[in-house]
């Protein structure tokens, strides 16, 4: 009788089904980007240790800080007439410089944008020129123009105007590349020429971005003007330099407070100009100082939301005969916009007139430049290399400290994260106030309290990062997709769970890009802070300009240009790998 015997099974047959890998293997570029990021973080932490930036260093300077506070009280403000003249002079330089950069940046941006220029050499050449303007410090431009032209306001206008092309030109080109091609295509279909297509189909779309960028750069140039005063550019910065050199700290700090007030007022004015030109949508749900001012105005006047324009209301009325001319009434809204535009135009014309007076003194510098070939000017090469290395240490260390300080401030300033509305507004106001204090003023204060060296420069840049990096973090957190956050809240997730699971992952790529941009800014700023003894290569740059060793100025500029370009290339690669948007 046959018996059934179980079939022999092999180990492969009895084993459980093989689980296939579901996660994608990390790409080589991703691993490389992670290693580079860790290396940069390690260098920053090592720089903190090597520069001896710790609690003990701060505690040792408490006595000096107390003595400094006693020396600056009471503050010594200049007479009202002198104060108004300095404010007008500084604003004229800043407005003229920003206008110059706009005029030069618009054609460069059209040539640099891929959708408006098909010639690759023209596009790459324009992009290279924009990057070069951003890499060369405005201080170097100021030194050159002061040597060629002499002291006054024109060197400051040219220096800030050319350097601002680096930022304005890049943002203008990015805005042009992001337009809707539909209007331009429709205009082209009518047989319009290329210039007509750009003026009618492209320029109206990018004008809001152009205005916002120009107003933002105006605020930046106001703070830069203080720095240029230390090399002879007229304005409040030069008076601060004179006060510091004579150890008149009550006058110097008083002038610094005037600069702080100017920056805050500039924030209010720039917001009003944007609202007048761009319409009410430009400030919808505005936070910070502008939001508080707008809501206070509405409460005081009892005003509600602005009514729809007459053109929109006309859609609900019967159509008029085609031959009849439609007239839009001159209401309060249109009158306010017209008055604001007229006021802004008068300010620009007054600034140009003030700066134009200095044109008659052109050539009074009477100096010649021997910028080539580059040389060390008698300074040992290893000394310059060591100073450049210290500048890098200061920049990296300040970026780490600034990120630690600015991240919580920026997150709490975001409307969609702040637990209370008043708390978010308070942090927005704090960010604006910090942005208003130039890093150079902070560096001078820390030099007096802590002493000469890289520690003062690092702390100044770290605090300054709260203003820039904190604002960028707050904006990035507010721009995340709210749908993901709402979906998590619907499941009963807590506020912290929503933030770490929905908000932060969406904003992280942009935050990484902003952090790399902050590092780029800190490298250039660390160079400039050396002129007040805050460590780094800036000290040798200033001394070379004073003794007219312009070959050394060229050498230092080339070193800085190479480092900035290297960091820029690394940042572009890291952003592309991480999917971040600069």
Automatic annotation (TrEMBL):
It is found in: Cell membrane. It is a multi-pass membrane protein. Pfam families: BPD_transp_1. Residues 1-21 are annotated as: Disordered. Belongs to the binding-protein-dependent transport system permease family. Residues 87-270, 388-571 form the ABC transmembrane type-1 domain. PROSITE patterns: ABC_TM1. Coiled coil: none annotated. PANTHER family: ABC TRANSPORT SYSTEM PERMEASE PROTEIN P69 (PTHR30043:SF1), PHOSPHONATES TRANSPORT SYSTEM PERMEASE PROTEIN (PTHR30043). This is Phosphonate transport system permease protein. GO terms for molecular function: ABC-type phosphonate transporter activity. Gene3D superfamilies: MetI-like (1.10.3720.10). Keywords: Cell membrane, Membrane, Transmembrane, Transmembrane helix, Transport. The keyword Transmembrane applies. The keyword Transmembrane helix applies. The chain crosses the membrane at residues 28-49, 84-113, 249-269, 335-355, 390-414, 495-517, 523-542, 554-574.
């Amino acid at each position: 009788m046959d018996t059934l015997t179980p079939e022999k099974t092999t180990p492969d047959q009895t084993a459980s089904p093989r689980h296939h890998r579901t996660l994608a293997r990390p790409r080589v570029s991703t691993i490389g980007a992670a290693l580079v990021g860790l290396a940069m973080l390690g260098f920053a932490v090592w720089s903190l240790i090597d520069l001896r930036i710790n609690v003990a260093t701060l505690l040792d300077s408490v006595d000096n800080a107390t003595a400094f506070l006693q020396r600056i009280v009471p503050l010594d403000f200049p007479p009202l007439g002198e104060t108004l003249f300095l404010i007008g002079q500084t604003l004229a330089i800043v407005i003229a410089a920003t206008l110059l950069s706009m005029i030069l940046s618009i054609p460069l941006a059209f040539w640099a944008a891929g959708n408006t220029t098909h010639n690759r050499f023209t596009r790459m050449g324009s992009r290279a020129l924009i990057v070069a303007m951003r890499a060369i410090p405005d201080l170097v431009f100021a030194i050159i123009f002061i040597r060629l032209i002499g002291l006054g306001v024109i060197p400051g206008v040219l220096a800030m105007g050319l350097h601002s092309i680096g930022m304005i030109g890049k943002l203008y080109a990015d805005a042009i590349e992001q337009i809707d091609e539909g209007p331009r295509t429709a205009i082209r279909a009518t047989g319009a020429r290329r210039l007509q297509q750009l003026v009618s189909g492209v320029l109206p779309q990018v004008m809001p971005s152009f205005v916002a960028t120009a107003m933002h750069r105006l605020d930046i140039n106001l703070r830069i003007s203080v720095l240029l005063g230390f090399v002879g550019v007229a304005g409040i910065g030069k008076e601060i330099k004179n006060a510091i050199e004579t150890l008149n700290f009550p006058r110097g700090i008083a002038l610094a407070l005037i600069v702080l007030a100017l920056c805050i007022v500039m924030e209010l004015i720039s917001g009003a100009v944007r609202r007048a030109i761009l319409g009410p949508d430009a400030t919808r749900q505005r936070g910070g100082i502008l939001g508080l001012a707008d809501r206070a105005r509405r409460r005081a006047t009892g005003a509600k939301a602005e009514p729809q324009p007459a053109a929109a209301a006309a859609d609900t009325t019967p159509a008029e005969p085609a031959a009849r001319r439609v007239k839009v009434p001159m209401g309060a809204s249109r009158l306010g916009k017209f008055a604001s535009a007229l006021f802004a135009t008068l300010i620009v014309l007054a600034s140009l007139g003030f700066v134009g007076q200095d044109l008659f003194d052109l050539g009074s510098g009477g100096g010649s430049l021997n910028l080539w070939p580059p040389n060390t000017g008698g300074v040992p090469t290893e000394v310059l290399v060591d100073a450049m290395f210290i500048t890098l240490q200061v920049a990296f260390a300040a970026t780490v400290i600034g990120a630690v300080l600015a991240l919580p401030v920026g997150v709490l300033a975001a409307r969609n994260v702040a637990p209370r509305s008043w708390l978010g507004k308070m942090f927005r106001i704090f960010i604006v106030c910090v942005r208003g204090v130039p890093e150079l003023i902070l560096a001078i204060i820390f030099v007096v309290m802590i002493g000469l060296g890289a520690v003062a420069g690092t702390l100044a840049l770290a605090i300054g990062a709260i203003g820039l990096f904190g604002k960028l973090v707050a904006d990035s957190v507010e721009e995340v997709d709210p749908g993901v956050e709402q979906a998590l809240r619907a499941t009963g997730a807590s506020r912290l769970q929503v933030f770490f699971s929905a908000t932060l992952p969406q904003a992280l790529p942009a935050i990484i890009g902003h952090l790399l941009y902050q590092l780029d800014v800190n490298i250039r700023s660390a160079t400039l802070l050396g002129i007040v003894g805050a460590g780094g290569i800036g000290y040798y740059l200033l001394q070379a300009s004073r003794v007219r060793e312009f070959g050394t100025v060229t050498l230092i500029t080339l070193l800085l240009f190479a480092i900035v370009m290297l960091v820029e290339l690394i940042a572009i690669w890291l952003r592309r790998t991480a999917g971040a948007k600069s």
